[in-house]
Amino acid sequence: MSSAASQPNVLIVEDEPSQREVLAYNLESEGYGVSRAVNGEEALMLVKESAPDLIVLDWMLPNVSGIEVCRQLKTKAETRNVPIIMLSARSEEVDRVRGLETGADDYVIKPYSVVELMARVRSQLRRTRPATVGQVLEFDGITLDSESHKVFRDGNSLKLGPTEFRLLSTFMEKPGRVWSREQLLDRVWGRDIYVDTRTVDVHIGRLRKALCQFGGDDPVRTVRGAGYALG
């Protein structure tokens, strides 16, 4: 399986085709998975099907506005933590304040620099998906370096397969969070690949074996009827 499956997925919500494609091209060039929506209704439907890791959202959309999309997503528990970067030609301070108060995590005025926007995307993902932007993650004696693809536990170098590495990256980005098998399939294998949920159990078993190859307690917790968590 490609390691790209664990790369962040960005949803672009933009009704202007040329701007939408420029954004998609630059995001894909950075290695992100990209989904597209041309209006607010489609955006809400796509997010309901599978929440992205970040949303680039135009304010001026037909029918359901970007502000309304943002408001709806930020009031739901399952989507309120998805970062939203609002794009708008409205440059007045009152509009910027309104966008941020509605829940947008960042506000970018059109016309914008694509280079600056990509930097803002990385900044938001550094907060929510740190392993994907090269940060070293640490938890309870376990160190994961996503750039060098190395894992250590209490100073010992661990040998992990690529799938186990992506599983551990997912767990270490949010220690304590319970991930269902379906969520792990989406994050680690990718949304477009059919894999039986029992495959998750097999790779969790391999990850546990790898983490304990030099001794120590098993840090992966099974939550009956819910899934798995680290710590």
From TrEMBL:
Ranges of the DNA-binding region feature: 134-231
Gene Ontology process terms (BP): phosphate ion transport; regulation of DNA-templated transcription
OmpR/PhoB-type domain ranges (all copies): 134-231
Record flagged with keyword Ligase: no
UniProt-recorded Gene Ontology molecular function terms: phosphorelay response regulator activity; transcription cis-regulatory region binding
Keywords: Activator, Cytoplasm, DNA-binding, Phosphate transport, Phosphoprotein, Transcription, Transcription regulation, Transport, Two-component regulatory system
InterPro entries listed in its UniProt record: CheY-like_superfamily (IPR011006), OmpR/PhoB-type_DNA-bd (IPR001867), Sig_transdc_resp-reg_C-effctor (IPR016032), Sig_transdc_resp-reg_PhoB (IPR011879), Sig_transdc_resp-reg_receiver (IPR001789), WalR-like (IPR039420), WH-like_DNA-bd_sf (IPR036388)
Location(s), subcellular: Cytoplasm
Task performed by this protein: This protein is a positive regulator for the phosphate regulon. Transcription of this operon is positively regulated by PhoB and PhoR when phosphate is limited.
Official protein name in the record: Phosphate regulon transcriptional regulatory protein PhoB
Species name: Meridianimarinicoccus aquatilis
Gene responsible for this protein: phoB
